[in-house]
Amino acid sequence: MHINKHPSYENVIAIFTGTLFAAVGLFLLQQSHLLTGGTAGLALLVSHFIPISLGGLYFILNCPFYLMAWFQMGKRFALSSILCGGLVSVMVDVLPHLITIEVLNPVFAAVFGGLLLGVGMLILFRHRTSLGGFNVLVLFLQHKFGISAGKIQLAIDSMILITSCLFISPELLILSIVGVIMINMVLAINYKPERYTATLQPKK
């Protein structure tokens, strides 16, 4: 299949926009003590027990998936994913110094934070990169077996949230689930390679 390539300047703008959206979404969830799926959710959960910044934990947890990307998806995809994951890690740790939120409704944080994360991931997917983490596995399985990225991500996120119920209140768990639904709704509806040809192809 022919793959359309974005100009370099479009990729730069997309990477900055996608990582910023994802970082702000993650920041809103963190401020409301909500969780999410993927390595972001694991980082949010682990940050309650380990004195390492959220951004630092996020990058560390992504490292094994960067290796997978290198061998399964190609060096270009791996390097761009490392860049995107690193940018989100830095942005998440910097945002508290740039934004002060006095009132944040947790329902709004769950819905809007989830949508921002989903849109950020979507932008990166369409420019043949990702945030690393389970995104790498999701993209590989979609292109290898044709399974919807949104459905795979939802299954992974569900397992993480089920585990999280041991550590957070039922109310926060429900709102965290709402956030995950928002993320995966964006991906399931909008990320369909047959409709958008500038997509990643795994290595043969």
UniProtKB/TrEMBL annotation:
<feature type="transmembrane region" description="Helical">
    <location>
        <begin position="160"/>
        <end position="187"/>
    </location>
</feature>
<dbReference type="GO" id="GO:0005886">
    <property type="term" value="C:plasma membrane"/>
</dbReference>
<protein>
    <recommendedName>
        <fullName>YitT family protein</fullName>
    </recommendedName>
</protein>
<keyword id="KW-0812">Transmembrane</keyword>
<keyword id="KW-1003">Cell membrane</keyword>
<dbReference type="InterPro" id="IPR003740">
    <property type="entry name" value="YitT"/>
</dbReference>
<dbReference type="Pfam" id="PF02588">
    <property type="entry name" value="YitT_membrane"/>
</dbReference>
<dbReference type="InterPro" id="IPR051461">
    <property type="entry name" value="UPF0750_membrane"/>
</dbReference>
<keyword id="KW-1133">Transmembrane helix</keyword>
<keyword id="KW-0472">Membrane</keyword>
<feature type="transmembrane region" description="Helical">
    <location>
        <begin position="77"/>
        <end position="101"/>
    </location>
</feature>
<feature type="transmembrane region" description="Helical">
    <location>
        <begin position="12"/>
        <end position="29"/>
    </location>
</feature>
<feature type="transmembrane region" description="Helical">
    <location>
        <begin position="49"/>
        <end position="70"/>
    </location>
</feature>
<feature type="transmembrane region" description="Helical">
    <location>
        <begin position="132"/>
        <end position="154"/>
    </location>
</feature>
<feature type="transmembrane region" description="Helical">
    <location>
        <begin position="107"/>
        <end position="125"/>
    </location>
</feature>
